[in-house]
Every structure is written in C-alpha cells, then in structure tokens.
Design brief:
The protein is mostly helical. The protein is built from 16 helices and no strands. The protein is globular, with a radius of gyration of 21 Å. The chain crosses the membrane at residues 28-50, 71-96, 102-126, 133-151, 197-215, 227-254, 260-278, 290-311.
C-alpha cells in the first residue's frame, strides 16, 4: 500500500519520470523515509512496553556477577536500550558508580549502540532478516568478547578518582506501572526517540537516494579494488572519527553495498560510526583516563574488523 501511494505521489501527482535519476531518487527518498519512521515508531512502542517488565534491581545484581554470563547479560540489556554511543554513557557511568565490574559495563557500552530496536528495524527494512539476525548475534559477540578482554586486563586504575569513590554508592530505583502506564511509557519513549532521530533518518535516506541513483557503480567498485583486502580496516578507520545515528548510517551503508562494496566492509563502516566516535571519547574522559579510552577504542575496533571480514566471507551464503 505504501509503495503504491509513493508511486501515485511521485509519478502521478508530481509527474516525475520513473526512468530518470531524479524521479528514482525522489521515490527512494519518500518511500524509505516513511517506511522507516513508521517501523521505528511501532517497534519502539512495543519494546518500551516490554521493557517496563524488566526488574531493574535484578538487572543490577545480574550485571554485578562475575564471569562471562554477566558480560552476556550486559550486552543483552544494551541491545534493548535505544541509545547511540553518546546516549549510553550516562547509564554506563551509573553502572560504574554502582560497583559493577568494568568489563561488564563495557559490554553494555559497546552493545547498546550496535544493537537497538531502531537499528534492527532499519536493517530489516534494508538488508532482510538473514543479515539482521546474523548482525544481532555478531553485535552481542563483540560486546561480550570485548568486555571480557577489557575486564581481564585489570584497568580499574585508569578510572578517575571521583568515579572510584562512588563505585559502591549508587542504586537503581524500582518503578511500578499499571497496564495503561506501560503502554503510555512505550508511547512516550517511541515519540521521544522518533523526535530525536527523524532528521537523521531523512538525512541518511536522502544521501542514500543520491548515491543510489547518481553514483556510478563502477566508481564505487574501483575504490574497493584499490583497497582490496584492507577495505574493512580502512572502513573502520574512516568511521571512528565520524559521529551519527544509525538511522542516518544504515541507509548509506546499504546503498554502498548495492553499489559493489562488500557486505562486511559496509557493515564495519556502520558499526564503527555507531559504537565509536570522537564525541563519545570526549564524554568518556569524564570517567576514565586517556589510556583506557585508547584501549577501549582499539579492542572494539579490532572486534569490528574481525566481524567485517566474517561478513565478507559469508556474503555469498547470505544471498
């Protein structure tokens, strides 16, 4: 129905030529923008409703345990929180001050921007369910393994002194909801998130529409040919200094993939922007010394690069 409406609007009302670059770009822009925003709204509402049933005090207790199970739960909890890399930091700081092991808090910080409801919606809409499911598992794996490695390196000494002083004092308050209150919470969270990222959706889809309809496939492919096997780490290096919402990055990544960039390279670029950014590094300076920030960025980048190569290897099996 939405596709037919876009056809009617772009090619009927606006009278654009469906065979022209401009007509195709406008159709791509309107259809994907509306589709993604609607999917975002309804999925976030449902996830927000479900999240009200999560016992907050138990979450703190589970994340405070030792062992890889705590890292897994932290990554899983991060996956159901609709945060970008910078938005995850306040909750990350709260976990630190609550005395939760450093490696476990890093698992949350890594997984939270890599996997969240609106990113999953975007990937379902653009890449399909096979790649989305594999991406979710790979994001959890990156969060768990990176957190375990960071935790075993005994890096607490690199935290700033006031964070160390507060490690055992913070507490997480329980909230109770009626059934209507749960629906209201999901609705309010959905509205808040959509208001926050709708512009990123439009910008990302707009850039994707331009690339999709105007950038020759040969130009994209020539870049990959020149970088060869190093395309994945180069994509990560290019992505880390950038900052943007996945709502803007996913449409660009899928168009680059359609233009000939290997799947893992496109996803590595997207993951680097989602999980690591210079604004995030600046905000983390509030809690840790520069050395720890560098170690965190290095290990996470390495995990993303490995994942990118894995997706490139599996690309033919996924299509």
């Amino acid at each position: 129905m939405l596709l037919k409406f876009c056809d009617w609007l772009v090619y009927g009302v606006l009278g654009l030529n469906p065979d022209s670059h401009f007509g195709g770009a406008v159709h791509f822009f309107i259809y994907d923008s509306v589709k993604i925003i609607l999917l975002l709204f309804f999925l976030i509402l449902i996830i927000g409703f479900i999240r009200t049933y999560l016992p907050q005090r138990k979450i703190k207790n589970w994340m405070g345990k030792k062992g890889i199970s705590a890292n897994f739960f932290a990554s899983l909890f991060g996956a159901v929180t609709p945060f970008c890399s910078c938005s995850s930091i306040p909750l990350f700081l709260g976990f630190l001050e609550a005395g939760i092991p450093l490696g476990v808090t890093f698992s949350f910080l890594i997984a939270s921007p890599l996997i969240n409801e609106y990113l999953v919606v975007l990937m379902l809409g653009f890449f399909g369910y096979k790649i989305t499911i594999l991406y979710i598992f790979s994001g959890l794996f990156i969060g768990v393994i990176s957190g375990v490695i960071l935790g075993r390196m005994k890096l607490d000494k690199y935290l700033v002194s006031d964070i160390i002083d507060k490690r055992n004092n913070a507490d997480i308050k329980e909230e109770s909801y009626s059934f209507y209150g749960r629906i209201k919470y999901g609705y309010q969270e959905s509205i808040a998130v959509v208001r926050k990222i709708w512009l990123w959706v439009i910008i990302g889809v707009g850039i994707g529409a331009i690339i999709h309809n105007y950038v020759p496939q040969e130009a994209i492919q020539s870049i990959i040919v020149k970088t060869g096997i190093f395309s994945v780490p180069i994509a990560v290096v290019l992505g880390v200094p950038m900052y943007g919402s996945c709502a803007a990055i996913v449409p660009i990544a899928v168009v680059l993939f359609q233009k000939g960039i290997p799947l893992g390279t496109a996803l590595a670029f997207m993951m680097a922007i989602a999980a690591l950014s210079l604004p995030e590094a600046i905000m983390l300076r509030r809690a840790m010394k520069i050395g720890l920030i560098g170690i965190f960025f290095g290990i996470t980048s390495g995990a993303i690069i490995i994942t990118g190569y894995l997706f490139n290897f599996l690309q033919h099996a996924l299509f």
